[in-house]
Amino acid sequence: MTIERAARAAALAALAGLVWVAWAPARGQPRVVVRGEALAGELPRWTSAPRADTLALRLAAPPAPLWRDWLAALRREGTAVTWSGGFPLVAMERVASAEPGGGAAVLVAAPSGARVRLADTLGTIDSATAGAGGASFAVGPLAGALTARVSVQGGATAAARASGGGPPATRFVSVLARAGWEAKFAAAALEARGWRVDARFVVAPGLAVTQGRPWPLDTARHAAVVVLDSLGPAEAEAVAAYVRRGGGLVVSARAAVAMPAVEALAPARRAAKHRATALAFAPNDPRAALTFDRLIPGPRGVVIEREAGDVAVAAARAHAGRVVETGYDDTWRWRFEGGDAAVAAHAAWWSRLVGLAAYQPERGGGRPAAARLGDDAAPVASLVFAAGPAAGAVALAAAPVSRGVAPWLFAVLIAALLLEWALRRVRGVA
Amino acid sequence: MSGADARGSGDGGAVASRRSAVARLRLTRVALAVAATVAALLWALAAALATVLVLVVIDRALGLSQPLRGAAIPFAAVVGAALCLLVAWRNRGVMRLLDVALWIEHRAGSMSYALVTLADPGAGERAELEVAVAGSRWTRPLAIASARAVAVPLAASLALVMLLRALPAPTVLRLAVPRPGDVLAGPAAGRRDRLAPLVATVSPPPYTRLPSVTLEDPATIPGVEGSAVVVEGRGDPAGLRARVGDSALAITRDGDRWRSALLLPPQAAALRFTDGGESRVIVLAPFADSVPVVTITSPARDSVLRSPPRGALRLEANLHDDFGLTSSRFEVIVTSGELETFTSRTAVVGAAALSGVRDTTRDAVLPLDSLGLQPGDVLSVRAVAADGRVPVPDRGASETRTWRIARVGEYDSLAIEGAPPPGGDSSLVSERMLIMTTEALQRRRPHLARAQVVGESRDISRDQARLRRRVADIVFMRLSAQPTGEESEGEQGAAPQTPAQVLAAAEAATARATGGVATDFSEDESPVVAVNRPLLEAYDAMWDATRELDIGEPGTALPFMRAALAAIQRAREAERVYLRGAPPRVVVDLPRVRLAGDRAGAAPSGRVPRTAEPRLPPMLAGRFARDLAMLLAGAPGAAADSLQLLRVDALDGSSEFAAALDTLVRRLRAGGDATAALIAARRAADAGTDRAAPGLARWAGVAP
Amino acid sequence: MSTFVFATAQYESGDWDSAPLLPANIIDTIARYTTIDVAPAGVVVPLGSADLLRYPFVYLTGHLPVRFTDQERAMVRRFNDRGGMLFVDDHNHDVDGQFHKTATEEIARAVAPLAPLPNTDPLYSAFFHFDDGPPDTSQELNGWGDNLVHRQLLAVVRDGRIVVLYSNKDYSSEWNYSPRNKRLFAVDNTRFAVNIIVYALTR
After folding, report:
1. Cβ under 8 Å to C: A residues 293-352
2. Cβ–Cβ of C129/B601 closer than 8 Å?
3. DSSP string spanning C60-87?
4. Fewest beta carbons within 10 Å, which of A38, A77, B86, B203?
5. What's the pLDDT tens digit per position in B200-219?
6. A330 contact residues in C (CB cutoff 8 A)
7. C7-202: CATH number
């Protein structure tokens, strides 16, 4: 009899337990805390049978894109997701160089003082300590995708990925100038570096030496235009329109000041002459031996090059295009009077100048880098987008509530009921 | 024979028999030793031959490298020697009499160990033992045993020799006499055995006296420019193609191989073999034969001499060449003249043939008296040497030593400021222009009306007359410092004077200037005539030209005009002082003349683009990036060929990168892990690039 | 400013200044026909001096044998390697003369051997059109020097561009006069110089 009562009590208790398991989460069950490394197993289970209101994540590193997307889907379905982690912020962008030799600039956003290591499938390319905002790299030939790994004191790391990208399509540069040494050797420098040059060198009124199709300017053909001497008002306006459409412009300060339409897009205004501070073209600072027009950058202007404190080259974005303004007029002297490597260095400088301004389709259009398959250029930002901003540290003290207890309660209930029924039967027989 | 005698004789006979038993034993020992030795040697030979056979089989299957093959024969010899020693050690018992006696006892039998006892040195005299041994013969067993010992290794050796002879000779020779180039007799490399392995034989030009070099499976063929290169591979040449740059090479059959011959070009180039869809690129990396270096040591410097030197001038020069000199000499040029007229004489002294020496000093003596140097002459001397380069030897020359012999009065003042040319210069130029104008009129004459011809001819006549008056002015001004009698105001002035009248006026002026005192002139000429003869001849000719032009006959005026021009030039040469120094500085009035010319017909042609410089490091890096992509895409063969072509361009300016590419290509061709080589090549491609900087750049590609 | 400065080479071994009026005449010609920014006076630059590299176009002439010193040879080589153009004219107008023989040898040693320049080269259409090649000079027509009329100039060409232009036609005599005398010509005989300079400045 006593056993019979106990069995009945157990059955009632099991029933009560089942009711509680069924109803308790709806009435504010505590969060389920999951470690980042367990995501691969937990998320599929959570998706089929949620066990709490909130999924709290403790992450040692940003999860892979697949899990981030999963978390975003869970959120949309009503699951609250919070996360915390001590890993550093990281974002990366690879900007392909427009120069025919290829290569790219890689910008890695990271906390100041963090160690940034850039690598591809072959191994480490370079590393640096992040300064204000992060670190910048110039890379040459790449093997496969790029990875930027950021590590901070304490050992936390985060990594961003970007695809390697192919070599840029070689496009044309239009060189417009009066016949002279600077124009001749600027064109020669660009051609030596693999640029395809259209040129127009004016020798007399109505007479010019031309090459290719330097005019009209077309962003479908010309990546950039180099203007070393002033143009007529109509042509200057056409250059400005080309820049506004996305073309690149490299213009001498002396020419820009004579063309109001172009000067309005220029990154700087021309100031007094900066006299050469060196007599010879030293390999480490060859342009110290050149005189140039000082530039005073405007609000949009970015200083590209300084010489003895004065700005010699500046750049600015102008609508969809870019303008690079140079105060130099006779860089050809560097090519001639410099050292043995001067010819190559002069060509490299001109190629870089045009590359800074040249129109690159990859840069335009506003498509985020992460849209490329396999890229993960901003993992932390993507995580915030998927799972919201980071919460405070999530403690592991809250007892996990598992739905796995329900079958046991049911089994206890059935067993208790059967026992009671059996005891009754036995009692009856006895 | 008494017992004692018998005993004595028996003893003596026993002694004799004993000696003979031991002697026989000793003889047997010698025979056994010889047999054992021969057997050991034959076993050694068999072992060595077997080792060689095994190695030949292994080489045939796997292809051993030349160093391993070179060690094969010594290894076989070591194996043979080891077996020889082993066999000898096992048969060492033949050296002990006791063992030999035992051996005989076992084979001859019936001696009941009498021979063994007799062999024991402590046995003493035992006649009965001798008797027991004396009747035994063991020659036959000895012979059989010896034959057995020798026969087996002999047969084995012969069999091995036959086996080795049955193999292809090149296969065996690869091991027996390994040498560079025998890789072609090695095992087949699979599908590409026409293109791998390859053997290149580089024979430098004979004049370099360098030995030929054979390279097995080279990725690069270095050598002196002009070396003969023969590339061989296995198989039939049908379907094979070979090119160097754009030039196709002939491929011929040589037995079971193909071969192609070429000369190393002056610059690095890619040698490409194509067999259907397969290809292979080998870099030709020539190095140039340097030009001889010649340094003249005597005379040591240039000089200006006050007067023509006499005596002899010692000439000396140091010569050097990388491969050898074949000839040398000193070249002399003596230039005489001034203004527009110069003559030169050349001479060679100290010419010598050199027998390929690399460094030497040559000297010679230049007899100055024989040169007949005069004031104003310029003597130039230099040393020249030639090497043996074919087909055209390189000639190196020293600096030139120049000796000037000063003109009279020149040496007194070396710092001479340029004086403006005398008036005769402009006369010369003007007369020349008049001649050209007249010639142009004469050419157009058939197409012009007579009246036009006369009109233009008279225009020229007026200019000619003006010029004639200026010549007359010069003649008078030189003696009287006064203008001439001929009017200089233009044709509206007084009638022009005849040449005789001008001459008379000049004579009168001379008499006034010299006070009537005669001056010594040759041929009884007056001073005016003597000093101004050329100008007067010009004046006379201009008179005649003017007359012809006035009647509209430019063709007949031309000879007079040319005669006038020649005379003016003689006058100028006679009187003008040649001055070295700063030429007259003429400043052009640019604003006045800007665009004043007639540009009719001007139509500048287009400019042709320059080609990119493929050897610039960034260009090489860009191509390397494309090859990397090819590698990652799983095309190592194509990437290796492309990298070889890249290496051709890198050889010229990026030697470190070229070396890294060479290593990378070898690893790719060998089929192993090339990651380390790839990383090294990329590092070399990026050498010198500042890659990393803290902070974010405000403009991509610009350091922050 | 990339002003064109007419430079005359001063070398050690010969009479480099044998055509002193030529630079002014050519400067005048350039100003007459083009808008090229040209300096109003020429300069003399020592061939062995680093100053040679300040003038990408250099004119060289003379009558006497030409023997470069090692320094001059090295500088000429560097000058051409950087992209400079050397214009050499035989003032003797004599292919058997020592100027021609020695100058061509020195050019071959310093740069490369000279080769005949086709009369279809872009030089002859760089500004004016000379369909028959280099214009003849009065020195040739008068039979002076080697008594030949040379139909072609010689040149060293690299990558399709002239780096050394060599003349046997005695333009040094043809153009060696004051620019004030141009008025006497029906056709300016210095027009070919415009082609040379325009070519140097644009190719």
Report:
1. 329-330, 332-333, 335-337, 342-343
2. yes
3. EEESS-----HHHHHHHHHHHHHT-EEE
4. A77
5. 999 998 888 899 999 988 88
6. 1-2
7. 3.40.50.12140
